[in-house]
Amino acid sequence: MIQSNKPFQAAKQRSVRRCSLVASAEVTELGSGAKLSARTAELGLGGCYIDTLNPFPEGSQVQLRILRDNGVFETKAKVAYSDRKFGMGLAFTEMAPHQRALLEVWLAELVTQLMPTS
Fold first, then answer.
1. Of 18, 58, 65, 110, whose CB count within 10 A is highest?
2. Per residue in 18-59, pLDDT tens?
3. CA–CA separation, 118 vs 18, rounded Å?
4. In the 8-state DSSP scheme, what is residue 53?
5. Which residues of 16-50 are buried (b: 16+ CB within 10 A; e: fewer)?
């Protein structure tokens, strides 16, 4: 797994492995409706890391959209940790079954790309 400049403590608390993925993301804070455009840095079954200079505060409930050429992944999430210099870690909270299936396909593609070819 590629190390980044995210806080060590937050990375240490992660319970599910994440794969590197740079993709466009839209994050909407559900309470205020505030929306930001950002990009993902990592993606896993339980959450992702969003690179942004204006992260939402820890505990914020958000709607997440990740856009790739092979689809759009959408889910609700909670800001698990926030670092105003780097971004925020999101923990997925409510995910429709078809969105879970899309996420699993994306992760399988990412893991396949990481495997050495013979």
1. 18
2. 788 899 999 999 999 999 999 999 999 999 999 999 999 999
3. 25
4. S
5. eebbebeeebbbbbeeeeeebebbbbbbbebbbbb
